[in-house]
Amino acid sequence: MGFIDILKDKARSSMKTIVLPETEDMRTLEATDKILKEGFAKVILVGNVEAVQAKAAEGGFDIAGAEIVDPATSPKTAAYIDKFVELRSKKGMTPEKAEEILLNQYLYYGVMMVKMGDADGMVSGACHSTADTLRPCLQILKTKPGTKLVSAFFLIIVPDCEYGANGAFVFADSGLVQDPNPEELAAIAASSAESFKLLVGEEPIVAMLSHSTKGSAKHALVDKVVEATNIAKAENPDLKLDGEFQLDAAIVPSVGASKAPGSPVAGKANVLVFPNLDAGNIGYKLAQRLGKAEAYGPVTQGIAAPVNDLSRGCSADDIVGVVAITSVQCQAADK
């Protein structure tokens, strides 16, 4: 059984409702067909009912089991408008502007469905940028209590791999925070460890990555990672976390033993924290394209409710996988 299949089984144990607002994209409708056939989540599609059904029929997809909500006719839209105005009144939101946004920007409508408890989570980004996906989340849902910042990771599953957790890794931040300072990098590490534990079900072993291993290079960029490592250790004393490491020292046991003898993390890491978004984004795409890894995300962490982004190059199967991940996050949010 594949890793995502395990998550689907977990999702089936307590079915959650996930809203997919990008009904103009055929991949969304194909993914909906697959999700419903596999029966691991309930799906809400946002859009004109006739138009969505016609597009699905054009692609040969069966979406009969999904709920289609049209903002223009839904009896709940008025309450969403009122709540949106309440949440954004200090930013100058008016009822007229709120109505215009919610009737025409389905991502905002989907987030309002989550805010109002009519959906448990949302997946978007197949045809919208990360900024477009996360903007309504930060405006409406805000950050999770106790979380210092919202960040993003990719769940990477490398086939036939002896490293990490049988080839399973979290790569962070690979989708959102461009140049985290030491405090932010430490927060990303803590959130990523929590996400790894939730999704993979094994102990997170966190490596703070750099072009240096334990002082092998001197540079301000190395100093940032060293400081972040010290902060993360102080704030999370029970977490297996260490750095700074080059990638091979982090995941290859023989290299780790040579370059960082005595480290509880070297050669064993399954959560890889990159020093900036350049490194994290390049890293996950190298693993995906050259290592033939499955890459799911960017999965967000730190938002008050589970809303996840997609790469605009995603496939329908990628959407299915992220919906499974989101469903498991929704289950955890209930506890």
Would you write up a description of this structure?
The protein is α/β, with parallel strands linked by helices. It has helices at about 5-10, 25-40, 50-60, 75-90, 95-105, 105-115, 130-140, 180-200, 220-235, 245-250, 255-260, 275-290, 315-335; strands at about 15-20, 40-45, 65-70, 120-125, 150-155, 170, 205-210, 240-245, 270-275, 295-300, 305-310. The strands form 2 sheets. A 6-stranded mixed beta sheet has the order 8-7-9-6-5-10, sandwiched between helices. A 5-stranded parallel beta sheet has the order 3-2-1-4-11, with helices on both faces.
What is shown here, in short?
With 335 residues, the protein is α/β, with parallel strands linked by helices. It has helices spanning 3-12, 26-38, 49-59, 77-88, 95-104, 106-115, 130-141, 182-200, 220-235, 247-251, 253-259, 277-289, 316-333, and strands spanning 17-20, 42-46, 67-69, 121-123, 151-157, 168-172, 205-209, 240-245, 271-273, 294-301, 307-308.
Radius of gyration equals 21 Å
- The number of helical segments is 13
- Euclidean distance between termini CA atoms: 27 Å
Taken in chain order, the helices and strands follow as HEHEHEHHHEHEEHEHEHHEHEEH
- Derived from helix and strand composition plus strand pairing, the structural class reads alpha/beta
Percentage of residues in strands: 15-25%
> Fraction of residues in helices?
40-55%
CATH architecture of the largest domain: 3-Layer(aba) Sandwich
